[in-house]
Write a structure and sequence with these properties.
Length: 86
């Protein structure tokens, strides 16, 4: 086992939301819709940014490594868009 995890948040109406990953076959959950929430791109002056404007979020970065931008992107999305049902 790899130790990797993928979280899905399921609302009372049965709608599941989560960051796209390949650990869970989304087709096995039923009809799925994938929506872009951000863009991780090279920054004009070097490094990488995570642009969360597709979900009315901020521009994060620049980060020296793409992996750091991806981690910041995922963290922001989980904290601000994928909160578990309360």
């Amino acid at each position: 086992m790899s130790g990797a995890t993928q979280e899905l948040f399921v609302s009372p109406d049965g709608t599941a939301r989560g960051l796209y990953g390949e650990l869970i076959d989304s087709g096995a959950l039923g009809t799925a819709t994938t929506v872009r929430a951000s863009h991780v791109e090279p920054a004009p002056d070097g490094g990488w940014t995570a642009d969360l404007s597709p979900v009315a979020g901020p521009l994060l970065g620049p980060f020296p490594l793409r992996s750091a931008a991806l981690a910041a992107e995922a963290d922001w999305l989980v904290r601000h868009r994928l909160n578990p049902p309360g």
